[in-house]
């Protein structure tokens, strides 16, 4: 976890986060000064950021929008007050409407970012300055501390080459909190093909089978917001087990990058929220699935079924049976 300290100072009206990254100062600076890299970790999981304006010079402006899994939007702006590459920059951060105008009733905040060497790593200190105690308390109450920690936990995948970060490590499961789990798997293939493999029924049937001895008996795809999907499986021959399936609805569909769906086991009321994101680098695609469970008990029950093992078997089949012939 990059964040090593988080301090709110009500007397001086500041909030300071300290983090340490396993990369040199120049590499960390590059991540914070390139909007395509920055947007991969600026928003917390489930709320990825997209920078639509980027004028990286003193007096310049940046605008970004974070998109929630149910279509929610949160827009912010930066005004760059000072830039001293690769050691420090300062911005005026503000909540904004979609057109970039300041949002009434929300505070603007001056933020400084400082980067210093720490052996082979980089120590970052980011301080936010508030105009009033009310503004500080409002920001904390909105989940700034938790959101910042979860957002910055994504930066390791940005600072390393994608293959160095994930290749050969299989399907990884991270417990983010009591109700959120992040699953990642590097697929050796381009994003467009991986996206099609997730949404073309003819391709889905070739790999989304789970452990050996099972077959997919039903695959109804959904590729538009509001559509419903349905997938079913059954054991083959003497393989033990009972047929089962999942179904749900599409909440967000942004090909070939992101799809958010609800998911519930057929005949069961318990529902999860599945947020699929695909990121490509050097011909490989990082598949990230953020799952939101209704409670900790449901999370633990589902993970205990061996879900991750089944996903790994399917992803391995995706690479060998689908992507290799396609290429």
TrEMBL record:
Organism: Microbacterium keratanolyticum
Name recorded for this polypeptide: Activator of Hsp90 ATPase homologue 1/2-like C-terminal domain-containing protein
Family statement: Belongs to the AHA1 family.
InterPro entries, per database record: ASHA1/2-like_C (IPR013538), START-like_dom_sf (IPR023393)
Activator of Hsp90 ATPase homologue 1/2-like C-terminal domain ranges (all copies): 23-159, 190-321
Signal peptide boundaries: none
Lineage: Bacteria, Bacillati, Actinomycetota, Actinomycetes, Micrococcales
């Amino acid at each position: 976890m990059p964040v090593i300290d988080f301090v709110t100072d009500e007397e001086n009206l500041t909030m300071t986060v300290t983090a340490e990254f396993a990369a040199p100062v120049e590499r960390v600076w590059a991540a914070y000064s390139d909007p395509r890299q920055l947007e991969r970790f600026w928003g917390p999981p489930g709320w990825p950021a997209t920078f639509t304006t980027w004028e990286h010079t003193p007096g310049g402006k940046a605008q970004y929008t974070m998109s929630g899994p149910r279509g929610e939007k949160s827009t912010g702006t930066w005004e760059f007050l000072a830039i001293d590459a690769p050691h420090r920059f300062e911005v005026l951060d503000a909540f904004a409407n979609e057109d970039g105008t300041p949002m009434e009733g929300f505070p603007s905040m001056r933020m400084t970012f400082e980067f210093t060497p720490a052996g082979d790593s980089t120590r970052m200190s980011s301080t936010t300055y508030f105009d009033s105690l009310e503004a500080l308390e409002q920001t904390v109450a909105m989940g700034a501390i938790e959101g910042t920690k979860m957002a910055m936990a994504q930066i390791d995948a940005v600072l390393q080459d994608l293959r160095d970060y994930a290749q050969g490590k299989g399907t990884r499961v991270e417990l983010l909190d009591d109700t959120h789990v992040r699953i990642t798997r590097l697929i050796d293939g381009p994003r467009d093909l991986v996206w099609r493999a997730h949404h073309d029924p003819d391709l889905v049937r070739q790999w989304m089978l789970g452990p050996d001895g099972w077959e997919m008996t039903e695959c109804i795809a959904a590729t538009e917001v509001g559509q419903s999907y349905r997938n079913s499986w059954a054991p083959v021959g003497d393989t033990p087990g009972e047929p089962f399936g999942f179904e749900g609805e599409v909440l967000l569909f942004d090909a070939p990058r992101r799809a958010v769906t609800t998911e519930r086991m057929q005949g069961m009321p318990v529902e999860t929220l599945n947020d699929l994101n695909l990121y490509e680098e050097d011909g490989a695609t990082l598949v990230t699935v953020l799952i939101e469970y209704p409670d900790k008990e449901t999370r633990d029950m589902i993970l205990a079924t061996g879900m991750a093992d089944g996903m790994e078997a399917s992803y391995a089949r995706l690479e060998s049976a689908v992507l290799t012939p396609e290429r």
